[in-house]
Amino acid sequence: MKTSTNTTPAAIAKVLVAVGVIENSQGQIFICRRSAHQHQANKWEFPGGKVESGETIPQALARELAEEVGITVLACEPLMQIEHDYADKHVSLAIRKVIAFSGEPSGLEGQVSRWVAVSELSHYDFPKANGPIIAKLQQAALDESSSDTLDGL
Ligand SMILES: Nc1nc2c([nH]c(=O)n2[C@H]2C[C@H](O)[C@@H](COP(=O)(O)OP(=O)(O)OP(=O)(O)O)O2)c(=O)[nH]1
Ligand SMILES: [Mg+2]
């Protein structure tokens, strides 16, 4: 007789998360450190949080960034979508680049936070799902600097 152990992926909830890559005028990115009691504890992250029912992704992003880091999002654009299965949780990250905002971000929930250059992002311990985001930001920065070089010819 077959037995079921209820450990199939379908048994693990999937969470939609709006994630903001906030960039300043010097091309630096704002990152925060997750607390010791959160999922993916103590890892660095791009601020954001779960999309609540009835919310669009931009609405969720605006609410989360106001709550967590105290900025008002004025404009954002899609950067990428990542599906990632952690053993205990499946996440769908809807990543937006925040290209205009008002206010100065800070860790309103007591989280450590800082602005970092794109080239320094790989020195920080992010959740596994974030690898492709960092690769994409670093590739875009390289493309931009090579087009600057060509402009100078
Ligand atoms: N905000 C954010 N979450 C990320 C990133 N990478 C990544 O795997 N995650 C995962 C960790 C969590 O499982 C989930 C986000 O949940 P969260 O704990 O931030 O959600 P939330 O802000 O609504 O939290 P809460 O107040 O309900 O506790 O997405 C990232 O760069 N930023
Ligand atoms: Mg959050």
Question: What key attributes describe this structure?
Answer:
four-stranded mixed β-sheet, binds 8-OXO-2'-deoxyguanosine-5'-triphosphate, alpha+beta, metal ion binding, 8-oxo-dGTP diphosphatase, disordered N terminus, three-stranded antiparallel β-sheet, 153 residues, Nucleoside Triphosphate Pyrophosphohydrolase, globular
Summarize the structure.
The termini are far apart. The protein has one domain (13-151): Nucleoside Triphosphate Pyrophosphohydrolase (Alpha-Beta Complex). The protein contains two helices and seven strands.
Question: What does this 3D model show about the protein?
Answer:
There is one protein chain. The chain is of the alpha+beta class and 153 residues long. It has one domain: Nucleoside Triphosphate Pyrophosphohydrolase. Helices cover 22% and strands 33% of the residues. It has two helices and seven strands, in the order ββββαβββα. It has helices spanning 57-69, 131-151, and strands at residues 14-22, 29-33, 44-45, 48-50, 72-85, 90-102, 113-116. The strands form two sheets. The protein has a four-stranded mixed sheet, with helices on one face. It has a three-stranded antiparallel sheet with strand order 3-2-7, with no helix packed on it. A hairpin with a 4-residue loop joins strand 5 (72-85) and strand 6 (90-102). The radius of gyration is 17 Å and the shape is globular. The site of 8-OXO-2'-deoxyguanosine-5'-triphosphate has 18 residues, from strand 1, strand 4 and strand 6. 8-OXO-2'-deoxyguanosine-5'-triphosphate is lined by residues 17, 19, 38-40, 45-50, 64, 89, 91, 93, 127, 129-130. Belongs to the Nudix hydrolase family. 8-oxo-dGTP binds at residues 34, 39, 45-48, 130. It comes from Oceanisphaera avium. This is 8-oxo-dGTP diphosphatase. Keywords: DNA damage, DNA repair, DNA replication, Hydrolase, Magnesium, Metal-binding, Mutator protein.
